[in-house]
Amino acid sequence: MNEHFKSIILQSTGASGLSEGEIIQSLWSGYGKIQRIHLDQADVSNVVVKHVQLPISQHHPRGWNTDIGHQRKLRSYQVETAWYQRYSEQSRARLPQCLAVDSLGDELLIVLEDLDEAGYTIRKGSVSWADIEACLEWLASFHASYLGQEPKGLWEIGTYWHLDTRPQELSVLDDLPLKKAAHLIDKKLNSCQYKTFVHGDAKLANFCFAPSGAVAGVDFQYVGGACGMKDVAYFIGSCLDERDCERLEDQILDTYFTHLQQALPQEDQGLESEWRSLYPVAWADFHRFLKGWSPGHWKINSYSERITRQVIHQLTH
After folding, report:
1. N or C terminus of the chain with fewer C-beta within 10 Å?
2. CATH class belonging to 3-113
3. Residue 1 has pLDDT above 90, yes or no
4. H-helix or E-strand spanning residue 286
5. What is the pLDDT of residue 66?
6. pLDDT tens, 94-134?
């Protein structure tokens, strides 16, 4: 890490010194790293930094090494910077406090609270219903925080799979009915009356759990305006198999909207009606991306196929 960024960390934390700790995660496709930094004589022992460095050569894990992908990734880090500078403090849902944001040349640094030190020490690869409810409550609180706001500086339309940012995946999609209906699905979602900010990548891996069962969310590169069902459908698809997706569908939606109502005491009843009807549309939208991006992916299953066929039928008849 360069000396300028080290000085930013020291200034933002009041520490007398620092040392570089373990690399928590390498960023997707070689764009840098997330690293724990140990502090001397500061109010906290550690911070976590997201250090973005443009790769000398691109090595996308699925072979999508294109300028479109590169520009989308650059934009995502600009969005995350804007998110932490302008919007993150408004969130009623728990997320890491941002201590500093800085750039130097083509490098970017985001200094964040260490959620492990704050008690969110658990990462999960499988979930209980209590875990699912905690994450649904987090999403409801997050969505309630930004209902009706304009996503200035963020993605105009949130999520990393938004159709306009994924022309290559659409071009190679061999499911012709889905390919033909892709723009109808996209239009249906984007024309909803009630919009909020969506997390945009609300998979299980982006939630940190405390022993008490509380959760905090991380990774805000794809925050933008949208219907909240995009996050809910994507989260559920990240942690349940097709049988549980179907078996628990009503319970999932009932739980989410119960928490949304608690977070929005004056909620317009039209919001729940509209968003419930868009849950399968949001599911079909991600399914469209996935079938073009990685046709053999484990998330492509009979539940997703059935939901998508129903949505296509409804939109085309």
Report:
1. C
2. alpha beta
3. no
4. helix 269-293
5. 61
6. 999 999 999 998 899 999 999 999 999 999 999 999 999 99
